[in-house]
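Quick one - inputs below.
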Amino acid sequence: MNTPRYDEVQVGDVLPALDLPPINRTTLALFAGASGDHNPIHIDTDFARKAGMPDVFAHGMLGMAWLGRLLTNWAPQSRLRRFDVRFQGITHLANAISCTGRIVEKRDADRGVRIEVQSSNQHGQTKIAGDAWIRLP
Amino acid sequence: MIDPQWIGHVLPSSELSLDRSRLRFFAKAIGESNAVYTDLEAARAAGYPDLPAPPTFLFAAEMDSGTSDLLLQTLNIPIAKILHGEQSFCYHRSACAGDCITVLSRIDDIYSKKNGALEFVVKSSRAVNQNNELVAEMRSVIVVRN
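Output:
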């Protein structure tokens, strides 16, 4: 991996987007097992409907993990200092999520860049928004 | 209403032993294609002693241990009513397969909005490794739909 260099990146630069396949029940079952989050609202349609939801929906942390992939595809994880997100909307089955990021700030003191990240579905609805600080060489 | 007396309450600690097979399972579940997360040689070439845990993986510690469920039981919150509102990580050092991570959490805040239609529980956590070195700090906001 070619780590971006602090002197060579600019505010406004965008990270290569990460586009995910549409979410299906298998995606959610695998993530439930791998993440340890066994809340049935993500894997059991009957339970989800009783809870007043139209169907099962994605774990927030699955969307955050995808944003993590966006970041670590761009710079090695060891350079990641902070990662903060707000979950803004429920990510439903068949949503095809696109993760995007843009440099919004540079901090000379520690060669850190702040990246605004966002995940949105194919209808342009934002599902997660947040930011990350990455220190660059 | 969630009793605000729980602000300041410290939850039982959770131990999470990182192993390669679980990390590979997590990588598969999130569609990870970067070999650093699944291939030992790639991880070592990138400077890690073993497969690294991805940025959000440590959230699993309190899921596996049951502490996340215990928090809901303690505060009398039905699991069907919760949503994840916010999540933060502050990273101090990497965690890799072979490490044993201990997570200790505290309830930082409890508040409501919209006349109690939504309640919020804020939890902050520290994750340390087997050498008691700080690996990450985490902060979670859980939303309860009443």
